[in-house]
Amino acid sequence: MAGAAVMRLPPFAYLRPRELAEAAALLAEHGEGAAPVAGGTDLYPKLKRRQLEPSVLVSLRGVPELRGVRANGGLVIGAGTTLRELESHPAVLAGYPALARAAALVSSPQIRNAATVGGNLCVDTRCNYYDLPEGWRSALGFCLKAGSDVCRLASGGERCWAISSSDLAPVAVALDAQVRLVGAGGERFVAAAELYRDDGVDYLARAPDEILAEVLLPSADGMRATYRKLRRRGSIDFPILGVAAAVRTDGDGTCTSARIVLGAVASHPFRSSGAERALVGHRLEPAAIEEAAEAATAQAKPMENADLTPLYRKRMVRALVAGALAELAALA
């Protein structure tokens, strides 16, 4: 289009380590001015919008240790594995189909060929205000997530309400996954549920020099799980609601454990304790499913920081939770 502004990347140094320890050391050396990059499908657009301005990018694409899927009683998934590889891997499809489905629902085939598991798990929180182009944000005034002292969505508060926008994160929490974080000082293992903070700015419990290296899934062992996603378009769009559900039942069909995790309604993947209580000790029958869906709806508090209205998204919590649980009941 004639006269349209072209968004260009800012200048930065691009470093290409070949080992994981080297990558972590480079992040530690360059401190706050450095950022890791793998597929870059979310990072590069943010650089163009000047939401982030690192002076150094540490590429993870040349680190072999970060790629691949292997069985170990459960499953170990390298964080550099692409979403396309994840959605089509036989071991994932056989034992963890909810994870394959979540990967397949991310954006478009072209993006999934580049985007990685670690990138999606660590993807930045989103907000309609924060994700405006730089010209709009500078004209209207910056927000907490962009270094100001006010949230433009809830100006009376002191925290950022940008929402978790990962498709894989709710499923990882529902499956009781762990992640391996590797930094300059060594490695540590963190439950997926503890990786996320309910803060739109400081949304990851990961040190700046730490790299998410692997996702570790326990044995499925009779667990049934699924994932459902709400977005305006059937592709490309980030979730404005995601529902991951995982249940185990005993011999007579009574639910012995349940995890219901909502995405895109808070700054972290949100476990609905009310929905889980409504299921445990009951068979997956319409009355229990309805009670669980209502409990999840009561706890969900979407705000006006994503596509479509908060009221519609709240109503859709009930529909997606009920649909996911009915699907799991049919798989019994």
Write up what this structure looks like:
A hairpin with a 3-residue loop joins β4 and β5 (75-78). Helices cover 32% and strands 19% of the residues. Among the domains are: 10-59, Uridine Diphospho-n-acetylenolpyruvylglucosamine Reductase, domain 2 (2-Layer Sandwich), CATH 3.30.43; 224-330, CO dehydrogenase flavoprotein, C-terminal domain (Enolase-like, domain 1). The longest helix has 21 residues, at 310-330. It contains 13 helices and twelve strands. By secondary structure, the chain is an alpha+beta fold. The strands form three sheets. A five-stranded antiparallel sheet has the order 4-5-8-6-7. The protein has a four-stranded antiparallel sheet with strand order 9-10-11-12, sandwiched between helices. A three-stranded parallel sheet has the order 1-3-2, covered by helices on one side. It has helices at 20-30, 43-48, 83-88, 90-95, 97-104, 109-112, 117-121, 134-140, 168-174, 192-195, 273-279, 286-299, 310-330; strands at 13-15, 34-37, 56-59, 69-71, 75-78, 178-183, 186-191, 211-217, 224-230, 241-249, 255-263, 270-271.
Describe the structure concisely for a colleague.
The protein has 332 residues and is an alpha+beta fold. The protein has helices at 20-30, 43-48, 83-88, 90-95, 97-104, 109-112, 117-121, 134-140, 168-174, 192-195, 273-279, 286-299, 310-330, and strands at 13-15, 34-37, 56-59, 69-71, 75-78, 178-183, 186-191, 211-217, 224-230, 241-249, 255-263, 270-271. It contains 13 helices and twelve strands.
